Predict the structure.
Amino acid sequence: MKDFFNITEVLGQDKAKTMLRRAVGGGRLAHAYLFRGPAGVGKKTLARAFGNYLNCLAPTPAEDACGLCPSCRKLRGNNHPDRLVIAPDGVAIKIGQIRELKRSLSFPPFEAKLRTVLLCDVHTMRREAANSLLKLLEEPPPGNLLILTGDGASEILPTITSRCQQVPFTTLPLAQVTGTLTAEGLAPETAATLAALADGSLGRARSLVASPLLELRRQILTTLLELRPGQPQAAEAVLALADSAIDCGDSLNELLGLLHLCFRDIYLIHREQSQRVVNLDLREALARGKDRWPLPELSRRLPLFEKAGRQLARNCNRALVCEVLFFGLL
């Protein structure tokens, strides 16, 4: 993976790029920006690319960093003294990190005209940390630009959002995600499946490539296709599937979501809406599923996923939730 991007290399997000370039060209650069939108669509990448451009000593005519000047070389090597990155420590940005940031910003930039500060995933910020950040957002020391990134589906304190210029980010076109994944070496069918499962999030698609969830989804579906209620081996097989599922740990909800999409795809095939199927790499298994579960039976099974999700949200026993779900799907 590259670690130095230009603005033109960031996939999609043309509206965000236009907003930022107009701000620079018109001399209307805000003191703080909030890049907000779905996870994995390029918020952090564009934040870094924008910082590269602002600190480049010889910007290109295309309004991008040259990549060759001393500043760009330091940025490429992640050792530029005037770019600071604050990321969650564990699951959240903590107040100690914000206090340390304030101390750092009490000094002028070392060599750049503008120090860029990237605060990643501010939706994870604890309230005391967020409150500590407010004064800095109101009156940042001269020579500093703060870029915050946050998940559009998560809550961010209104006092933070009101102090930043918001830059909206959207999901990427599926064809664009598919093309990128194919260029990275994935088979076109697998790339198309990942793009659809990730709902236009290139970051999530890449994380699925690196995780065991896709293969486990396949194994669970194909095993359920072979089993029937009352078979002597069914109970043992279902318990083994439940063990495999809970071994996913924090990814269990995501796994069940992928399985839910498989059963949704079978429902769509019943309804002659195959063009909406997302698990393109499981076409054969989905076709078998159409024969295995007639439409009335399938309609009774689909709500089981929502029930399992509610039980997990209430911290019910994870193994028991999975066992009940898989027995119900037989």
User: Anything to note?
Assistant: The longest strand covers residues 144-151. The chain has two domains: 7-168, 211-329.
